[in-house]
Amino acid sequence: MRVVLVGINAKYIHTNLAIRNLKAYFEKDYKEEDIKINLLEATINDFLDDILERIVEFNPSVVGFSLYIWNFNQVLYLAENLKKVLPEVMVIFGGPEASYDIGGLLSRDYVDLIVIGEGEDTFSKLIIALKKGEKIEELRGIAFKDEKGIKINITQENVDMNLIPMSYEEELDFQNRIVYYETSRGCPFICTFCLSSLEKSVRVADLKKVEEDLRILAGKKTKIIKFVDRSFNYNIKRAIEILDIFRRIEGDTVFHCELNPELVSQEFVDRLRGIEKRLHFELGIQTTTPEALKEIKRTKDVEKALKGVKLLKEKGVPVHVDLIAGLPYDTFESFKEAFNKVYHLKPDELQLGFLKLLKGTAIRERAQSYGIVFRSQPPYEILYNKWMSYKELTILKGIARLIDKFYNSHRFENSLSYFERNFDTPFDFYLQLYGFLKEENFFFKENSLESLYEKLYFFAENLNLNLPYIMELLRYDYLLSGGKGKFPSIIDYNQEQKEIAKNFLKNKDRLIKIFENRYTLQEIMKHTKIGYFTFDIPFLEKKENMVLVFDAEGKKEILKIYI
């Protein structure tokens, strides 16, 4: 009996934990059975007919699809056409998009069965029953169609997480993929926009198992292990114990965890010492509007949440912070306030997300009372509500794209700081930049890296700022970020400056002496970028001729020479 489990990921670097867990859990008890479980991973950007061909080549009896908001339409296409090519194959859906749309999915003639909720135990029992030709009508945790209509059985008991084997056992390019791992399921919080709020209790794996699994993954030179625990630090004592596990594991694997910001304590931060650069924390502030926080059942202690982000930043841990636009009671002005409060903390990444009305969530059930109108197709994103118009949300969409292009890229840090100083608030800067770039049709075409420097320069020109200074500031940021790719023409040197820089580079003995004979000339030219400036960059607008030497690999300024 051949079974294929299909995971369609959003990006190539992602991996599908769900299908691996199903396979590992099954083989734990039934490895000797004459059943072959095959995994097939692809991405939403792959050609769907190529994926279909790969599935058909297995000649499977059963095909299971893991269904999420990012792959919903792709999976429907694959399942429908698979059924046409192999009419006898059993098509099974699982995952959050399946569990909360049972009737809608089973009404499609190409969907035979849905696994509800956690699938490990249900899937194993289902496959064995199918192999033995046993009846499945009373099997817990499934929904299916019969002559009487759709039947939904009660769910299985929750899976003991200690019984789920470490499921990344196949050969994988661990250095270039994100490996997902979970130490807990469920969430103690009840945020109305989140599916995790539906399971209010938390179940955990023993820390001995966690350490064993993580050692295996780190031993495979895994670059990033991303924890899917909904709130890594809900239990501070346990979170600290896991941090100690990270510390005991040698190597340079980075551990990505989602934290509840108001639970970040000084004790927690103190235990990060020595592993700061091997961590990446994601924190959801969402909003700072008290009425909105109350309505979505989040903490109203905004200052405590912001302090949590600040503590982590001061510790030097890379921090990603989320905001959500479109929440009930959040207006354009109140969202602006939230943006500014978070932006001033200077997180390493700032994500402006937009409310998604996920099936099964409380906020979706109350959407009509909030005046929320949202897209009918996944990811069910908001169009407008009582407090924020469609136009206002589209403006925020544009600002979100600017944040990704300019702020999150870390290519324009000094230039952005200069612009921000010329506005009352950071939001005002991005709002005016949005308006300027919209007139330039920026949002309706692809924009090269070179064009981003051009856009900022012309924006400065539009504001009547100090253009010679902003040109050199943009040049400084370009060189500081590694100076990769074509040198943007808008910030290129004039002929006189090129001659000065060229003459500086010609003096080979001086270069070697500057680097104290640590490098050969060839090594200096390979690992450094050298720029000529007429201002005391990046801090002062004072005229001062100088040469700056940048470490192109470490992306830092290493030498300033006044000439």
From TrEMBL:
PROSITE patterns assigned: B12_BINDING, RADICAL_SAM
B12-binding domain segment(s): 1-137
Source taxon at top rank: Bacteria
Cofactor names: [4Fe-4S] cluster
Residues annotated as signal peptide: none
One Pfam family named in its UniProt record: Radical_SAM
Keywords: Iron, Iron-sulfur, Metal-binding, S-adenosyl-L-methionine
GO terms under cellular component: cytosol
Listed GO MF terms: 4 iron, 4 sulfur cluster binding; catalytic activity; cobalamin binding; metal ion binding
Stated name of the protein: Uncharacterized protein
Native species: Thermovenabulum gondwanense
Phylogenetic lineage: Bacteria, Bacillati, Bacillota, Clostridia, Thermosediminibacterales
